Amino acid sequence: MNAVYLAQDPTLADFGRDPWWLVLIKIVFAFAFGLVATLLGVWFERRVVGRMAVRPGPNQAGPFGLLQTLADGLKMAFKEDILPKAADKVVFFFAPTISVICAVTSLAVVPFGPMVSIFGHWTPLQVTDVPVAVLVLLACSSMGIYGIVLGGWASGSTYPLLGGLRSSAQMISYEVAMGLSVVAVFMTAGTMSTSGIVAAQGDGTRLSIAGLDVPAPGWYAILLLPSFIIFFIATVGETNRAPFDLPEAESELVAGYMTEYSSLKFALYMLSEYVAMVTMSAVTTTLFLGGWRAPAPITTFWAGANSGWWPMLWFFAKVVMLVFVFVWLRGTLPRLRYDQFMRFGWKVLLPINLVWILVLAGLRSIEDWDSRSKLIAVGIPAGILLLATLLWPSRKPQPKSTVQEQVNDRPHGSFPLPPMDLQVPPSPRTRRVVAEREPANVAAGSDSREV
């Protein structure tokens, strides 16, 4: 069975040999996947959030409301395209395009399946692969920040500029945690190639549990559970999704960096957000969920689950599952404050990531460090401890005493304090005017009582 798996795993030598028309087919497929998945993702999110809110969601345009997203896209296309007078016209036009292109380009190095036969040519289901493919993914994610920053700057308005600056600080901060999480994958897999990382998560090792010979879990989401948790949290922050949707906090920034955008340019920004969500779900699947490989229970009873075109089904199922988690978080958690969000990234995720990488480096120095049994013994308890730490309810702070209570609690003989109600004493002129009016008020009151 392992021989069947190994025969299907592409290597770097399998890329660069396809004819031009086959490469073009792969490029069109990757682009179509990102576009169609985005359109369905918008519908999927509205339906799931509607069900969570006990309401139907879109259900009129087409079967199950599937054409609602297409109708919204046509509506945006026919809206008036407004260009602010103070905007930089060239940058204002290209900024949303940069965000979409960077999000779609990441799909070029994501493996959708193993080696298959397409019109008689034996080729991997992946556009291309390079020895540093994961760095290409991180570079595309970093370049997407330019689209947001330039969009806020080129609008020529204050609120978009503030939204763009705040968005750049947020995305850069969480890219640090994301990059450190991927370091653990490099150390374990021994390669930065995406196809090589998927191959390293294959079912090759077996464990003896309670006298039974069972396959050892190969997904890095299990072996490197702390890295998986931190990577997914950083992914949510990187894609500006709730509860980290601070760049588009309508109640605070008037829609943030995209305030001055309308019509198709606004649609491109919205499209880039959903493309990034689908792309990062595909990247998470590749790095931590075994890529296109079927789960272990399926491969135990079906030897051909990881051969042919079936792996695409497992890959799409994992991507949909992660997109559901994105939607689930949006329908469940409230938006964080910006200071809480930045403190969480720099003072929680970053130190934990560094400590976890140090632990993995220590395991690497041990003989036979790459044994999955050792990673399971360390990674799973560490991940459970991390989840318990993040989800443990914090103690409610005790209500602070009022200023007047603090004044009353001062020891006897302390220096006198000014009034603590923040009321300024009236000026001499005000006191004189009030004193002049009081006799008239008193006389008027006496006359009314006599009547």
Plain-language structure description:
- Residues 1-7 have low confidence and may be disordered.
- This protein has 17 helices and four strands.
- With 451 residues, it is mainly alpha-helical.
- The termini are far apart.
- The chain has one domain.
- The longest helix has 33 residues, at 20-52.
- β1 (115-118) and β2 (121-124) form a beta hairpin.
Strand-helix topology:
Layout: H1 2-8, H2 20-52, H3 68-77, H4 89-105, E1 115-118, E2 121-124, H5 133-154, H6 158-189, H7 194-200, E3 206-209, E4 212-215, H8 220-223, H9 225-238, H10 250-253, H11 263-288, H12 296-301, H13 310-332, H14 338-365, H15 372-391, H16 403-408, H17 428-450
Antiparallel strand pairs: 1-2, 3-4
Helix pairs in contact: 2-11, 2-13, 3-11, 4-5, 4-11, 5-6, 6-9, 6-14, 9-11, 9-14, 9-15, 11-13
Region (Disordered): 397-451
Subunit structure: NDH-1 is composed of 14 different subunits. Subunits NuoA, H, J, K, L, M, N constitute the membrane sector of the complex.
Organism: Micromonospora citrea
